Amino acid sequence: MSKITATAHSPSNARELSKSQNRKLLIEAAADAIHKFGIRGTTAANIHELSGLSRGMVNLHFGSKEKLLLAVAEELSARYSGQWQAIAGDADLSPAEKLVGIIEADFDPYVLNARDVAIWFAFRAEALSNPDIYPFIDSRDQGFRKTILELCHQLKNQAGYEGVDAKLATDALIALLEGLWTDYHLHSDTFKSTEAVKICLFVLQTFFPKHFARTP
User: Fold this and answer.
1) Which residue of 44, 118, 129, 191 pairs with 184 in a disulfide if CB–CB is 3.0 to 4.6 A?
2) In degrees, to the nearest 5, what angle opens at C-alpha 49 toward C-alphas 46 and 55?
3) Under CATH, to which class is 73-216 assigned?
């Protein structure tokens, strides 16, 4: 007797698809709730209302509201890291092109938008009292910092810059990125991503003038 295998239309696959869709709906609804009510004001009731799913689904899929909120932080972190990791891992790009690409990605609306940035700052306010959140909102993420530092070292070695401190350049760029995100959070109506990129490139020009020529 031949073995029957599950297909995309089988009941088991349909259940898995529904489970995955419901998880995504709950994560998005929780994100919207945090943006609207803040972390302390977000309840299972308003998450269910925003998701359109029945009561009890939060516990069914995540075990608790707290674990769902942690999933929101994880989702935003993965979205952000996926952007820069894709650029850093592109073998066709030079170190200078990777740095520019990472900077431009930092101000892409995919990650820099009013809702997600507000959520990011809301999580930061809770990080000290909830260490589980901290790894997902840490602006000193070791993977990101290590990548920027390696690229700065490569630029320094390529052109033989004398007196250039790659670590200092890394610290300056990361601090600048964080400051510009804060500026966006407070002034999203007037913030211009193109100007933010120019500010970052101006700093890179100071450290690595042979790689980043000044523009008029």
Assistant:
1) 191
2) 90
3) mainly alpha
